[in-house]
Amino acid sequence: PVLRLLEAQLQDQRREHEEEMEALKNQVDLMQEELEKQQQAFLQTLQLSPEVQVEFGLQQEITRLTNENLDLKELLEKLEKNEKKLKKQLKIYMKKVQDFEASQTTVPVERRPHERNMQVAVQRKEKDFQGMLEYYKEDEPLLIRNLIT
Description:
It contains four helices and no strands. The chain has helices at 2-46, 50-106, 112-127, 140-148. It is flat and about 75 Å long. Keywords: Coiled coil. This is MYO5B protein.
């Protein structure tokens, strides 16, 4: 039984290795074709006048930059969609926090101490999403007074 198990494992490894080798051969073939195309293009540009070579090089660089810009534009669109989604989630969570805080005012007095601890935890999470001002907690009254005046 152990010998058969080892033999089966060896056959599996051999099959995986052969599949991997085939995939690598295909990849090498594709790379060789691409290299041949690039060599032909290079030889053709060498036969051109220096001015045309420069123009051809500029055209290739423009094409490369255009493709890069398109990729960056696509990435920017994805990031903007993600930002919108996160803003929607933030609004939902803010609404839940406000609803939770509002429910705290209607809770009977004897249940409040336990609930108040949970509210503090929620407020701390909320602060991760707030504001463009950074200040020390002890400066808060002064900041509020200055904002009001």
